[in-house]
Queue: 2 jobs
Job 1
Amino acid sequence: MVSSNTIDGSGALKKGALNGIRVVDVSRALAGPFTTMLMGDLGADVIKLEMPGTGDESRYWGPPFATYMSSNRNKRSAEVDLHTDEGRNICLDLIRNADVLVENFRPGTMRRFKLDYETVAKIKPDLIYCSISAYGQTGPMSHRPGIDLMVQAVSGLMSQTGEPDGRAMKAGGPIADIVGGFSAVVSIMASLMERRETGRGRYIDIAMLDALMMVLNQQIVTYTATGKPYARVGNAHPLMAPYESFPASDREFVMAVTNEKAWKAFISIPEFAHLDEVPEFKAQVDRNINRVKMLEEIYRVFRAKPAEYWLAELDKRGIPSEPILTLPEVVSHPHIKERGSLMEIEYPPGSGTRVVIPGMPWRDVAAPRIQRDPPGLGQHTREVLEELYGPGGIKAAG
Amino acid sequence: MVSSNTIDGSGALKKGALNGIRVVDVSRALAGPFTTMLMGDLGADVIKLEMPGTGDESRYWGPPFATYMSSNRNKRSAEVDLHTDEGRNICLDLIRNADVLVENFRPGTMRRFKLDYETVAKIKPDLIYCSISAYGQTGPMSHRPGIDLMVQAVSGLMSQTGEPDGRAMKAGGPIADIVGGFSAVVSIMASLMERRETGRGRYIDIAMLDALMMVLNQQIVTYTATGKPYARVGNAHPLMAPYESFPASDREFVMAVTNEKAWKAFISIPEFAHLDEVPEFKAQVDRNINRVKMLEEIYRVFRAKPAEYWLAELDKRGIPSEPILTLPEVVSHPHIKERGSLMEIEYPPGSGTRVVIPGMPWRDVAAPRIQRDPPGLGQHTREVLEELYGPGGIKAAG
């Protein structure tokens, strides 16, 4: 299975843990492409099949086409029209030579293409076939359109995000897609490991909703154990205070006073010494009860000086605190630079335009890192078809 | 490696893809336990080592102890004191018989226990050793305390969440822990697959910060490609409108009008027919420019009737929309019930008290589902030590 992999001087795989695994990727937009990107990062050969002439719809979201660019490194693109017999046959031939198929169409679409699991498993019984959708392949909501905002609303996450007296808010990134994608990768890798024992393939049904609910593990257990709905707490901690975000004179920062010792350290900051004399703030239980009054006073003091001053005072005392960084600050942060957490890709292909992108979320795993920039539409159609049919064996679809 | 696994009638593994893999888990609180729980869900034998008498600190966060309950199914608990020579030797003996070690102490702590990778790899060169921390093992921030709120602040996610004119908000769940945990599982499984080829172990360094930045992929690419910071947009879409959350007379819901066809469908709702005559709302580009005025009018109309009415009208016209559900609504939702997305655990052990918890975020993967409820502190100390040393070979630590 890992035939073309070799071992380098340190005893590690040169091309990554998934080298030798071929993925036929008919997914578009986000959760599917994110899944196959992680597999490509780990060395899999990901062949992205796209509609001739148009391709993945996310190619058009922009400029600067950030969704496409950030989800499609380490793949090859081939234009194949699944609506035609010729395209469908190419897809089936690719599947015969592949290990994994990933799709994230609306449930039922792959059946219309006659590429549903039952059909495909007949010609390739050891295929791992992963369907990703907003709400899963079964259940009364399965047919509904899958947009990250909708899944955040239905999961309960929005109801838990935002100011207690404000609107329910979405998290500021497509976390249903991302957590759904991670769930897909884990389950595909588990199925590849299983296949080594059994020789059998699998059908995997990933619902972004199921994955996103794991972010609400604690709230769901709290509600079902107590029968009491978990109120939206904004940036605060439901059991501890002060533990949230605060305004300095110039910017916001977060701080967590997690126990009595930390509270003593906090009121050793000269500007907060007067809080020691307030009986309503003596014990943590008092501070929770009198939270509003306490926070008003803390806000008032913090607002008088810049964040840098407060963060230094808190740091000295071992109280966890950090500034709330903007994206420009994140991208230029010395820590993130030193860790090499960000990588560069070129896009469009051949343009010489290099863009910074978050890299793989692990260090020192056998991974080829970025071997390929996000491909142009159909950039590898000829290469993929010649691998399949030999030189001149078939004209490129589209 | 999968010696005790057997194949069931359908050709699948009975005990899960990771059956035969043993995980020594010295992690506490959230990202680490979440990682090992997913591995236990897939059939790994996870042995959770806990400080005698006290154990994982999350056992005390409550009642109802939701963090502990939702992160520790499918594990065994053994009380072992890593501060003593006896405990350290038990840990090393377990490692000799294990495949994976997971820890999420502050960087440097495992070295103080003389259980750092360099030391452990000498006695077990094929161990996969995974360290999870807030900011990673390297870089100027590596020593800083790792709380989900802090990582959300530093990642840039908070600056992207919340009302444009309000405070930066955290997402309403510990998503740095969850995405960090998923990253850890993927990298451990990749390293297990690699080990089959090379026979070698690996050291993996997971930073919750690196993982969480992937949620900001699109914003980071947009910023680095254009040089323009990506403004916080609340619940809105940066390029399309109306595409956000709206208030009905009784509750909030989300709606996405994604193109001209959808806009035509939207203004075919009788209450919105008058918008067709407003020149400022004609094309998508106009609606973006005149967004505030348009949204004010849409809000005014939506506020007059209940969400159920609007959702039915939108549904009829194929416009994506969903109510923003509360947790009680999520837990009792017919779709989630039909999919079996929630499971039950008993906790405390033997109490007969059953609590609902989100299950595994995949369907039909070879997984043993919930085989074990979250263990009591030291519930399996004797069992684990007898497996290691034989009956009566050593007295249970603690």
Job 2
Amino acid sequence: MSEKTIQVNLSPERKPKPESNQLGFGKIFTDHMFVMDYTEGKGWHDPRVVPYQPLTLDPASMIFHYGQTVFEGLKAYLTNDNRILLFRPERNMQRLNRSNDRLCIPNIDEELALEALKKLILVDKEWIPTAEGTSLYIRPFIIATEPFLGVHASNSYQFIIILSPVGSYYKEGIQPVKILVESDYVRAVAGGTGEAKTAGNYASSLKAQEVASQKEYSQVLWLDGLEKKYIEEVGSMNVFFKIDGEVVTPALNGSILEGVTRNSVIHLLKHWGVPVSERKISMQEVYDAYKAGKLEEAFGTGTAAVISPVGEFFWKDEKLVINEGKTGEISKRLYQTITGIQNGTEQDPFDWVVEVHQEAVAK
Amino acid sequence: MSEKTIQVNLSPERKPKPESNQLGFGKIFTDHMFVMDYTEGKGWHDPRVVPYQPLTLDPASMIFHYGQTVFEGLKAYLTNDNRILLFRPERNMQRLNRSNDRLCIPNIDEELALEALKKLILVDKEWIPTAEGTSLYIRPFIIATEPFLGVHASNSYQFIIILSPVGSYYKEGIQPVKILVESDYVRAVAGGTGEAKTAGNYASSLKAQEVASQKEYSQVLWLDGLEKKYIEEVGSMNVFFKIDGEVVTPALNGSILEGVTRNSVIHLLKHWGVPVSERKISMQEVYDAYKAGKLEEAFGTGTAAVISPVGEFFWKDEKLVINEGKTGEISKRLYQTITGIQNGTEQDPFDWVVEVHQEAVAK
């Protein structure tokens, strides 16, 4: 048997499955998980699907001290005709390896990881929720496990995939959010880890998020770390503005995460003939467009919400109410098209979805 | 019995203790650890000394995904007359709480933490090595344990202290290191987490460290993230330069860690009447001083090495060899004085050391 054969060890017990209105996001986990080990000299080995279980790690494991870790997030959807679909999963695996490079973590075999993900989903396929807007959230992540208190790259790792059935992000239809433009805290800077999907980026964002919540804003809009002028991301999403008929999003610059939804939105807009550009854009430019009545829409893009329209920005003591606080036309069309492609109810002109074929799960 | 009483559960087994020449740094751990839990509503509770054991954590625990964690590092020393000394431990606990604030982690009771640390050391006092230059390294850390895949502050945490007997940092006496001035990667920026002792700062430093190692430099010197002109830190140490008789160190600016050794060095230099200033200092200024023959010494300060003299900087394709690559007078004097105060062989004019009194360890 090859080192690369994924072993499957089924759980003797099955947890009760929640009702679709009990799902929430990222709180409930399925019966199984995927695990693969890395040790120096031996490489990645022993890929296996095992019962969902706690990780048992030495308290000196480097993940607890030096944050050497990366993760991904994607979703599986069940179609009306009972097919399981993934949305551009190969891009998540490619990005996982780009994050690995930045964090000095050994690359994974992207094909094997994708196979592992499919096998795990098939084992837990009864956990994929079926109500509208629900899906199975997939969280691949890698952690440094060497028990050593010194700052260097770990000599051992675990690659793990866990699954969480998640509810509709919008309980009552797509809803615009209110965003605080952040002027004190910084998420990332060129030369840092902003374009990698790694824990530290999220840890550093908590404080700003807390301050925004106290002011009753649901997320923050991050400006660049150097001049605090140029727009980077919103919360943990990429951000788009429709100004005078053109859709603009910040160009990738080394500190912005390259979102899969971001890329899909750009593709779709081009396909539709909507002008779209990736470029540097300042908050002042957005403000000026607003004042001139030309800021038509703003929205965030990410795996969790897909499209998150922005109804209001708060910047320098001023409220910028966009499109009367309502969801714009482009936001709506993008949301319907992308979620439709994801759940199999819309045409998939770019071959984005990947079907998880339900033949023989290995014993 | 109070919620704050530290319970002690002794290990039935004791591991063999290593020879002093086998110690290394951060690889060997003692027989016990301290653990305390936090749950929302209940606060910090159940402080306990338990046998050293693996942590058992749900794979969805937030520490593995969003890096909400802080740590500290300090040492205990055994004196020739068998007393156990700590060096300014209250500053580590104060800094731990400052880091907690930045990372949205609930503050700990600093007195209780210090008591816990002392109790743990007394339980494992036979692990304090006695050979010259050796000590017991102490690693307090806090991790977010809520099993939840969403970016918010965790509702549960563990505060843990582990101990590691460590060897002399310098096997053959204090030795100057060679440092690469980093021009591509950035450690931290104002508004980020640079002044907090949190995992993500160390994760982001690994790549630059890897590049430096390939060029046979042992550490990197970090410049500011904005202009890449001003000096911040060296490796995971603070840095000092002696220029034309004056000792200069970068002023605390929000992205530099406030080192306990840094603070102690400044105190000692002032006490000795050596001119010392905390201010913004550019790499160009260091270079110009070098060219003018006025760069007399450079050294890093940190808990692990105490004082780490710099024998060479590499910047813009040029080697700056300092003091003929030898340890300077101030570096030597600081090293001898601070390590002497720490191990009880030198006068302690500032009441820096705290003795761990060996009366009654609770059952």
